[in-house]
Every structure is written in C-alpha cells, then in structure tokens.
C-alpha cells in the first residue's frame, strides 16, 4: 500500500512551466479539486490508478483512489491528512507535500502546465476539476 500511496501522492500533487505562473502562489494555486489517471508499475504488473483529490485552504486534504489490475476486481482506498505547498526549485514549479497518518509524509516537485494542469516528474498530469 505504501507504493500505492507514493503513486497517489505523486498523482495528487502537480508539475511543467506555465508562461506567467508565479510560484510564490503555489498553495493558493493548488487549492481545489484535482483528478488524475495513469498507469503505475506494481512489480511485474501494470495497474490503472485514478485519483480524485480535494485540497482545502485549511491545509487538509481527502483523496479517493481506484486501482485496477488486469484480471482482478477493482480496489479503492480513501486517504486523508494534511498538505502544504511552497515554491519549487525553478520558475513554474511547486513543491507539494502530503502527510497521511498511515503513510507518513511524501513530497513532490510539480511543474505547472497551465492554469488547470500540473505534471509530476514521471509525466503524469493532474487536471483541476471545475467547481
């Protein structure tokens, strides 16, 4: 499950340089509802992972993840905890972190693609859900 959480944390949090993005606003930029989906390697198998995450202004988050492996019944899990974000190491990036009691803290540098899209270091995109 820790491997799934790492994939989720990476998918939940975002990364690619937007033209006029000011990374001093990372926390407010990332606040909101985000969705992502993509494959994750699980040893010799590939798994489709879909994540729906809500990052609140009070620093809390909730996420629901669904995972599907060929030939197996779909699984889902809910994750909640605290989150934060600060400017990343370069323009157009944010360093985001999530802390969930059952998994500890995970951080990722995300690249802002545009006002509604971020990309993690593996190229997985997260899209902002319209409110």
Structural notes for this entry:
There is one protein chain. With 131 residues, the protein is mostly beta strands. The protein has one domain: Lipocalin (Beta Barrel). 12% of the residues lie in helices and 53% in strands. The chain is built from 2 helices and 8 strands. It has helices at 2-12, 26-30, and strands spanning 32-42, 45-55, 60-68, 75-87, 93-100, 104-114, 117-119, 125-128. It is globular and about 45 Å long. The N and C termini lie far apart (30 Å). Mean pLDDT is 86; it is low at 1-18.
Spatial strand sequence of the major β-sheet:
1-2-3-4-5-6-7-8
Separation of the first and last Cα atoms: 30 Å
Radius of gyration, Cα only, in angstroms?
14 Å
Into how many domains do the coordinates divide?
1
Find the CATH topology.
Lipocalin
Instruction: Give the class-level CATH name.
Output: Mainly Beta
What portion of residues belong to β-strands? over 45%
Task: Provide the structure class.
Answer: mainly beta
Describe the largest sheet: 8 strands, antiparallel, barrel
The backbone outline, from C-alpha atoms, is globular
> Which CATH architecture would you pick?
Beta Barrel
Portion of residues within helices: 10-25%
Describe the structure concisely for a colleague:
With 131 residues, this protein is mainly β.
Keywords:
131 residues, mainly beta, Lipocalin, eight-stranded antiparallel β-barrel, 2 helices, 8 strands, globular, disordered N terminus
